[in-house]
ROK family protein (Thermobifida halotolerans), 834 residues
Amino acid sequence: MIGRTRDPNKAEVADVRATNLALVLRCVREQGPCSRADIAAATGLNKTTVSSLVSELLRRRLLRETGTTGNRVGRPAIMLTLDGASCAAIGIEVNADYLTAVVVDLAGRPVLSWRRAFPGGTVSPARAVTAVTALIRRVVTRIEHDGRQVLGLGVALPGLVDPDGRARLVPALNWRDVDFAAELVDALRGPGFPVEIGNDANYAVLAEHRFGEHAGTRDLVYLTGGTSLGAGLFVDGALRRGHSGYSGEAGHIPVPAPGGSAHLASVASVPAIVRRVLPSQTRDDEHLSLAEVELRIDEVVSRARAGDTATLARLDEAAHDLAAGVLTLVSLLDPTRVVLGGYYAELAPWLLPVVNGVLDTRAVPVEEPIAVASSLGLDAPALGAAARVLDAVEEGRFPDGTPSATRDLAVAARAPR
Amino acid sequence: MIGRTRDPNKAEVADVRATNLALVLRCVREQGPCSRADIAAATGLNKTTVSSLVSELLRRRLLRETGTTGNRVGRPAIMLTLDGASCAAIGIEVNADYLTAVVVDLAGRPVLSWRRAFPGGTVSPARAVTAVTALIRRVVTRIEHDGRQVLGLGVALPGLVDPDGRARLVPALNWRDVDFAAELVDALRGPGFPVEIGNDANYAVLAEHRFGEHAGTRDLVYLTGGTSLGAGLFVDGALRRGHSGYSGEAGHIPVPAPGGSAHLASVASVPAIVRRVLPSQTRDDEHLSLAEVELRIDEVVSRARAGDTATLARLDEAAHDLAAGVLTLVSLLDPTRVVLGGYYAELAPWLLPVVNGVLDTRAVPVEEPIAVASSLGLDAPALGAAARVLDAVEEGRFPDGTPSATRDLAVAARAPR
């Protein structure tokens, strides 16, 4: 829809049609399997319109018919459901020492999840483009082999991403002002689907909101628990990026520490916690790869379960520092839930009681614990990038029904975030 | 519209009409003086509809005609503007030792501003109801004497207010679970206009967003600078209260302090700052009334201007603690502006350079300073309560055009926040 001159009346009609297609799709996602009559009742659209929209969605292979049901008044109705087999959304994460790729179908069900080591922190952006492009091609090949069409692609980065999609500053990768989306679209030679990039914590909270155990929570904060600490903020039912897109830089929050003050990331990020609990194993300035963090987490959990006193004491101190950060988030935003992601989940038995204990000292008690562990693991940012693609479909950006068509959509590739 | 059974078709038509009336009103507020043709062009409504809506708004005395203009192509058009003289919105603040009342007209211009001492911190809620009711009656008398109709009333409290309007916890007044709005409506014997209550910092950021020097900023944080410290959050163009309505409890943020950790309010609220700068004048546990804070602020400013070394050194330390709190807010929310309200404005020459200096140490510099001083002074919370009344009018809740009619609107008095 970008760049073409259209008759304004035709444009309006097309927009209304796209909106209604999205409405029907969302209705089936939330309430399916359901009949055309159910959709008409739920959306307020008349039955003729619904029939026409459903026919189009069936043709585009976004919906499929799934049999009839006799458990109802009147004659049996044909039930409709999302056609999970027809489409796929790709989510990628690029980090200092790994790449993640996930694929989900239209209904959000996982299709694949890959992770591989990658020296993102030491290679050039151009080299990263090459590696990510190769990964995307392999994923697309797999998707096409399954007979699916690619709805779109999102790439999560652990840094500041501008609203126009440029990676402004990604310390873990040593990137400054890298227009990664455009470079991927070039390298993919006009992929035929939208490509966007975004901040990892923002995508992770999107994933939590769509796929997590607390899906649908309107006021939700997610803290990343991989190799860095960032926050994604859901406020009043939507992701809030701030005026520059840089919201959620939780790692920089000043917190009390021995010697005065420290940044929250340096005392309570996952890497910081493993450093504090296993101090002999790591020099302070040594960057911990994801694999190294994972090894150390296993060691911490093992020692904690064995009741090792020093381990439990240090975990407790770190938990209190994390609690100071979470108390800050909760005091400011009053979220229903704060979800600790990534490897925080492994440490949850020792972290959550302390964090929720500190939150309980506030003047107004809550009925359910605010701090919880994520069940999405390390895939959360990539899953969120894929979720964003699915959201775009529900905002009206539809594929045309042909599997992985090579269409001239290079302009569409820089989709608005 | 509450409680009455209506023909659904008529209800829909009435709702569309109310929405369009509000649209026209808002258009004139933002672009007036303007003609009917201007309104049609700006709103997309056709000219006949606009004429009809304008006639109704003229009849209700929300708009008035203001002469013609010849500076345009075609024949002179009659210009329309908000009828400032017809209406008034009342904002009240109840605090530990004072009451504030402000009145603004439909265009937001100030009509009156009163403040009087009141021992809110030591009298019962019932006594407060009596005092505030008496204040409201005096204000309404004054408004009616001017021939205006009262659009509504809001009351700002320095504490936690639930979404249904109950004052859950107001430490400064020793209130717990006080249904202040309902009690006022009772005491006023069905006032004939909506009454609501809300948190002072939330109202203050509303006032800043509508009336302040940075009006219209979509991502804005306000910090109260009276006798307590709280934050009001505007995110993506709207006030965000959090899931319980308790957002912005900035005073509880843990910050680094000598001896470990302190709450931001205890080191960097306005009363905390004056205590730190003039330690000999105040016992640590002595509650400072607004009048006492004002006296001490004057002393601090006087000494600072005279270049007193101890004063400047202590101001600088306090400024750095405030900066830690502001850095936290900015890192999390990425607002365009953080507005320091109340008496922070008097101390701005010594606070802002330090706060903005700390913010400038972040990885991505900004073009304009984020931290600024409010020009609204101590009236901000009450002004915001009045602004909320004006917002409600623009959301379709209209007065009927008769000055201070005694209408059976007791049900409407518990207006949704």
Observations:
- Residues 88-206+380-414 of chain A form a domain with the Nucleotidyltransferase; domain 5 fold (CATH 3.30.420.40).
